[in-house]
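Thread amino acids onto this structure.
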């Protein structure tokens, strides 16, 4: 290997090409030195921001923190979020290096000048949904007509409701829409003051399911398909530290693979990191993880690997933001998403078959 200037790390390709201990690295998961801080023996410190609270669908990030990021020489501090918009702003401002956010919110933020890029999808299907009590008699979307639907004013399901009703062949004027505070959505339905609520399938839909048997209608199943929650970082991180970005994506996707194939084991790592979760209903956390897993599977993962984003889904996500969020000056797709780092972590055919089987009970389209 040729001598390099001090402070300039070798590239991933040149390192692997020149390392005689490659077999050991692959076998042990030991991090190559270029991921660590230059000239330092300690782990590379990285900051990561969630889009919201510590729900079951974030177990994979804590599995990555304990195992997969750590094996790559990364000491990742995970902080709770305050909404995807806040996560995007925090990362764009350089106050956190990486994070997770809704890609719809991310695209809208970029249209307003934020510097964030999607680097690997968690959810291959949008979690935006309408969730109803099963005892309401609602079995098909047409049954929503004449029923009461509670929604929060600024929620994605509310903004996109006109498009959903058109796509589903529902007369929107026959749906009795009631706007309430977000904290009242679940209780209003449980107390039978409404039959349905707008929901996010990976979070509050799981909460409703724990309280009463429910039926769920995903907007994605009626043509309003978008990529949703996924990893984000700034464009300068992609340009200046591609090896770090690669390590973060690969570690996260190894964590997601564990969560998909063994949700309980992944959850244990989150509870270990956040002991306060011991008081939470474990079944609820596992349902949140299962719902997340069901939406994380799809052709992109099967054919290309975890995190990969099909070009058509990238385009649809951008188009939905323009149409329903009325975003202006939205950059082209290639400025919003990149598959450069996604798809390295794959499932074998048998692993994918197992993943579909064990998570099928969480898939609303199978119900």
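Threaded sequence (367 positions):
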């Amino acid at each position: 290997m040729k001598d390099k200037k001090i402070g300039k790390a070798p590239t991933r390709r040149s390192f692997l090409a020149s390392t005689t201990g490659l077999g050991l690295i692959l076998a042990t998961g030991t991090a190559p030195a270029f991921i660590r801080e230059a000239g330092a023996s300690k782990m590379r410190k990285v900051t990561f921001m969630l889009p919201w609270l510590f729900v079951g669908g974030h177990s994979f990030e804590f599995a990555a923190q304990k195992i997969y990021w750590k094996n790559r020489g990364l000491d990742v501090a995970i902080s709770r979020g305050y909404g995807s918009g806040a996560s995007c702003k925090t990362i764009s401002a350089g106050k956190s290096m990486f994070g997770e956010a809704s890609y719809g919110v991310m695209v809208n933020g970029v249209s307003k000048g934020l510097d964030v890029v999607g680097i690997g999808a968690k959810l291959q299907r949008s979690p935006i949904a309408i969730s109803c009590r099963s005892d309401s008699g609602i079995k098909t979307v047409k049954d929503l007509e004449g029923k009461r639907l509670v929604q929060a004013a600024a929620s994605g399901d509310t903004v996109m409701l006109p498009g959903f009703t058109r796509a589903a062949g529902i007369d929107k004027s026959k749906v009795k829409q009631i706007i309430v505070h977000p904290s009242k959505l679940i209780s209003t339905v449980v107390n039978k003051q409404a039959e349905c609520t707008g929901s996010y399938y990976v979070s509050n839909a799981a909460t409703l399911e724990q309280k009463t048997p429910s039926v769920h209608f995903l907007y994605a199943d009626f043509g309003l398909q978008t990529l949703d929650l996924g990893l984000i970082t700034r464009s300068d991180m992609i340009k200046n530290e591609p090896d770090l970005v690669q390590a973060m994506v690969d570690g996260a996707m190894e964590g997601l693979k564990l969560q998909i194939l063994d949700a309980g084991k992944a959850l244990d790592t989150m509870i270990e990191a956040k002991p306060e979760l011991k008081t939470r209903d474990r079944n609820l956390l596992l349902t949140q993880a299962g719902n997340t897993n069901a939406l994380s599977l799809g052709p992109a993962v099967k054919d290309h690997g975890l995190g990969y984003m099909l070009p058509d889904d990238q385009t649809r996500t951008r188009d939905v933001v323009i149409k329903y969020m009325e975003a202006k000056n939205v950059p082209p797709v290639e400025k919003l998403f990149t598959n450069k780092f996604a798809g390295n972590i794959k499932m074998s055919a048998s692993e994918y078959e197992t993943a579909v089987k064990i998570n099928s009970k969480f898939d609303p389209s199978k119900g």
